[in-house]
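Worked Example 4.2. Consider the chain below.
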Amino acid sequence: MVNRKELQPDSSPQAAFGARVRSSREAHGWKQQDLAERTGYSSTHISAVETGRKMPTLRFSRSADLAFGTSDTADTFERQWREIRNGSLLEGFPEFVGHEGRAAEIRLYEVGVIPGLLQTPEYASVLAESAVKRGAITPEQASERVALVAERQAALVRPRPPLVLAVLDESCVRRPVGKTAVMEAQLAHLIEFAELPTTVFQVAPHDMGARRPFDLPITMLTLTDRSLIAYAESALRGHLERESTAVLPMLTAYHQLQAEALSQAASVAMVEQLRKGTP
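Applying the procedure from the previous section yields the following structure tokens:
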């Protein structure tokens, strides 16, 4: 206990992360060197994170989850890291992103804008810059949002990529975002997405009318243990739903949505026409 620095977890999110690492380590009866060996970091690095002198990274947080056996829990170190890094995002979203990055299947429905998993960097930048102009976020937070889009998309090219089923309301592909070149590239990217072997892409046309089962965007994740999570957003926060009694009806509604939406071939044809400027 010599030179043991007292922690102040309430002083900052970074300090709270460090205090949690220390308390978890001590609960296991490990010294800093023991944790260092289990995570692939030096004991000096462990000390710096615990005392809040060094900002944790995604790799460190995942290593901590593996060491402490928290990878498949609701309150992972990765989730806490994402909350630190993405403090400008809606409450609940960082936790969702952590699950999304490990999901076996992703089903999403979006209205109005291309969803993050399918955005080009230029399209994402236009949306972020618009939020800065409105005063909703800072330029630094805008950069973090664009970086997060790229980070999320990395899950699509991992060794065992998830099956991604994407249904976009017609408003997503018809709403212009940015200059013509930005939108053309975004539409071309949607066509490339549809050609991947682990994706299904559909457009829900306007004339679906009342047959459309969802009025708001929703994402459903099938995790590796086949459990289901649904995620939806309000204006103020994101909400994760894990109870099967609530999620299973959403899954049924999503299947109904797919049945009513255009086929992938027809959806790609619509996007191709819009990309070429054909009404």
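The longest strand covers residues 163-169. Residues 130 and 136 are 9 Å apart (CA to CA). Compare this with Example 4.1 before moving on.
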